[in-house]
Amino acid sequence: MSIMQHRISAGALVEQDGCLLLVRHAVPGKYDFWVAPGGGVQGEESLEQAAAREVREETGLEVRVGPLAYIEEFHSPHTRHVKFWFLAEVLGGTLSADRAEARIEHIVETAWLARADFAGRAVFPPFLAGDYWERRAAGIAAPVRLPLRAMQFW
């Protein structure tokens, strides 16, 4: 029996003009996918602080983190993840994938994508392809806890 590590993460769902802020992680021959910015909580930072830091590191943008929208659980063979997704709004900065933190994570592109732009792309987390847009249109009233899923890439 192997020992499974646990990771607490936070991310931001940043929308502007009907588009979501996404970053593209790509390693030729291994993976190529888009995801909302986010990552592991460090030290004693709050979930909200982690979400804002991850947006800054991965995209160059500064955001104001708002309410919790989703709690996502997923796993790879050696790690169980719990990720807290917050709604957020842009305060400033310049959109770029050129920061050292982004390059280390194989982020090759940042973009504002409309729902229609998702076609033909691997987009994570999976709720961004459908549930998010329906809930947003209805007004996200309370956080949704999503069922555990297996990661496709790690």
Automatic annotation (TrEMBL):
Belongs to the Nudix hydrolase family. Transmembrane segments: none annotated. This is NUDIX hydrolase. Pfam families: NUDIX. Its cofactor is Mg(2+). Keywords: Hydrolase. PANTHER family: GDP-MANNOSE MANNOSYL HYDROLASE, MUTT_NUDIX FAMILY PROTEIN. Residues 4-135 form the Nudix hydrolase domain. GO terms for molecular function: hydrolase activity.
